[in-house]
């Protein structure tokens, strides 16, 4: 039993030495400056992510509201032009376009 008590005492002494070494290192100016830099970087990253998320939301909703209907309408127009081209090729002669200037003499 005596040897167990001596082991615990020696462990507690080394533990105290580790704690005091750790506290001295953590109180150094280099560690404090490092912690400050990491905290500042984390703050900047958080703000950047927040503003980037807002910008992405604005771009995505604007595209859905403005861009998507435009793309759909352009696709419809292209399909209509293709259909007219197919019809004119089947008939053999292109359909005459009405003149907007009126009859020419």
Structure write-up:
The model has no long low-confidence stretch (mean pLDDT 79). The chain has 105 residues and is mostly helical. The chain has one domain (2-90). It has 2 helices and no strands.
Annotate the secondary structure layout.
Elements lengths: L1 H25 L2 H63 L14
InterPro entries: Tom22, Tom22_pln
Organism: Olea europaea subsp. europaea
Family: Belongs to the Tom22 family.
- Estimate the mean pLDDT confidence: 79
The figure for the number of domains is 1
Structure class: mainly alpha
Q: How far is it from the N-terminal to the C-terminal residue, by CA?
A: 127 Å
**Quaternary:** single chain
Estimated radius of gyration:
39 Å
Number of helical segments?
A: 2
Low confidence ranges: none
Question: Using DSSP, what is the number of strands?
Answer: 0
Query: What would you call the shape?
Result: rod-shaped
- Portion in strands: under 5%
Q: What fraction, in percent, of the residue positions are helical?
A: over 70%
List the secondary-structure elements in sequence, H or E. HH
The main sheet comes to:
none
